[in-house]
Amino acid sequence: MTKEYETYCEMQREYRNFVQLNYIPMHKHLYTINDDIFVPSFVQALRINTPEALQQILHEEHPGIYSFDILKLDFCKKLLEEIMWFEEWCARQQIAIHRPNSMNNYGAILDDFGFDSFLNRLMKEYISPLSTLLFNDVGGDSLDEHHGFVVEYKRGKDVSLAFHTDDSDVTFNVCLGREFTDGKIYFHGLRCRTCQESFSSTEEYVEIVHKLGRALLHRGQHRHGAKEITSGERYNLILWCRSNQYRRQVNSGECPDWCGSKLVGQSSITRP
Questions:
Q1: Is there a domain that residue 31 lies in?
Q2: Cα radius of gyration (the chain)
């Protein structure tokens, strides 16, 4: 660990401690997760918790990419109000909001202002049954660490997201609203870390319209991006889920069976 990284981690801890000691939420009840925030079909499938019941709520948009309805619209609305309230508080305190990652210039890290327990339970109790079924080849059955944040897309701010992979093993991405046009999420090839720069076939490309309250679930190494929104504003709740057990076992010198580079013929290659 470099001295610069140690300094960054210490600054992050001080920032988070200050926020959590001084910030007063608008909707305090949001910080405790319960079944009431989810649509009934999702709750029912998890209560039964069989492969058949879970498959019933899943739609496979493309190989390895699944969507399903999850959050009630009222929860989405109140969570956005909480985020706006937090941003206003930061402005009054004259402190800079720590942004989610190096690619998103707008949005906030939810753990910074008290959602760490909420997100940990969301991952372990609500996402893990699905990731165990779908992605146990990348640690979906042993998720134990998360990074949760909300990102914002709006004209005059970020309007799109470049082609990339996530620093996660399983990614959960749900649209919180609001009204917007265009901004489809596109995927273009599942690759291991060794093969991230390899070409893609046209058959690997898919565009998905993200709908309010609906989630996408995919491997973090499934390369993707977001096309430009042309009007309105869109917010997404994103949870990067990681398995330390899986990461300790991965041999970086070997290309795993799920890597799509093995299936791409050199006669049909393209880049997004």
A1: yes
A2: 19
